[in-house]
Amino acid sequence: MHRFANPARFLRIANAVLPWAAGLSAVCFAAGLYLGLFASPPDYQQGDTVRIMYIHVPAAWMSMFTYSTMAVAAAAALVWKHPLAEVYAKAAAPLGAGFTALCLLTGSLWGAPMWGTWWVWDARLTSVLVLFFLYLGYMALVDAFDDPARGNKAGNILLLVGAVNVPIIKFSVEWWNTLHQPASVFRLGGPTIAASMLWPLLLMAVAFQSYFFAVVILRIRAGLAARRVQTLRLGQAN
Amino acid sequence: MTRKRRRLMILALALLGLGTATALTLSAFRDNIVFFYSPSDLAAKPPGGRTVRIGGLVEAGSLKREGGMTVTFQVTDTAKSLPVTYTGILPDLFREGQGVVAEGRLGADGVFSATELLAKHDEKYMPPDVADALKRAGHPGKPGDAPVSAGEEHQTSTLRTNP
Fold it and tell me: Which regions of this chain are Extracellular-facing, per the record's topological domains (chain B) (predicted)?
């Protein structure tokens, strides 16, 4: 892992991965959306409303995946001072916030017809809302200092403190009574979703994941370029 | 010890402390974090006149329409069940054998009068034909699963009794 922390080496690999990630994302979105929204069967209880799942669940997975990787990057930045780690966390934050917002929005749209309410303060919904605020707080905090190094450090500490929320989100539905259902896919004893609905869901998960990789590579490239511009300017000023 | 190692140790200790503090806080506030109580919880800790939420399964065969928009049914966690009365529009997913969460007060007569009713669904997803096939075979279990016992399978998640 330390080998890839070199920005130049990372960029060489990332540039090679980028077109593949973008292509995979486009193909999986097309196939997953078609299968999920048209070709898959309705649910025996929820009917066609279940199709919200094909957006809601991958968005929820990505919201937690993105935050977990940002927390690991924050630890790497604090302990080993990897130059790439902070660039990654900053690049991924708006994406994670977007996934979380999408998850909350589609969840609300799903809850209204099925549960009979747009929102409740149960443990799952509340902890995901906290995750959304953590993303927003991180983005606000890193830019709140005149010295970017101090901003990054404060942001990294916030990311690590907020990491306790990730297992709380995952296990909230098991530790406490919630209105939200327990896990259907990543659970002991295997998935409780019929294969004809699980495949489109996994396709959509791959689509979201590769979309994330493609966009985060673009954003890291921009972040690294911005850093170089900054050092050049500082060099000129002196 | 190098500086990197020292930073790593400090970080690990800080996270351990934070994790422990969070775990202690969450377990201390357990009663406040749960979204609803089960009928067994309610029997163990009577709420008095407070507004509370109860949850469980709508007992099969217990739903009665009392005329107008009033319904009565039993909410069960299979150990205990509680009679509930509600006036209003039922959520789409409200049906016998499915999960329900009701907010209201427990009357002196032991009947829970609900002011709000929410439907709770479980983690099982399958097409209608698979559900029909399972039902015909007498196993309302999950798809692709070797059926255990019908009764046991059915009460997977909606019911969780709090200790």
Answer: 29-163
Facing residue for A164 by CB, picked from B22, B34, B55: B22
- Total structural domains in chain B? 2
A50, A121, A182 member nearest B125 (Cβ): A50
Residue of A nearest to B9 (CA): A79
- Is B73 exposed, middle or buried, given 0-12, 13-18 or 19+ CB atoms closer than 10 A? buried
B74: closest CA of chain A, how far (Å): 19
The CATH number for B62's domain is 2.40.50.140
Q: Are residues B89 and B116 in the same domain?
A: yes
Q: Which residues contact A193 (CB under 8 A, 6 or more apart)?
A: A184, A185, A201, B124, B125, B126, B143
**What is the per-residue pLDDT across A169-185, written as a single tens digit (0 to 9) for each?**
999 999 999 999 999 99
Q: Which domain holds residue A63?
A: 21-237
Q: How far is B120 from chain A (nearest CA, A)?
A: 6
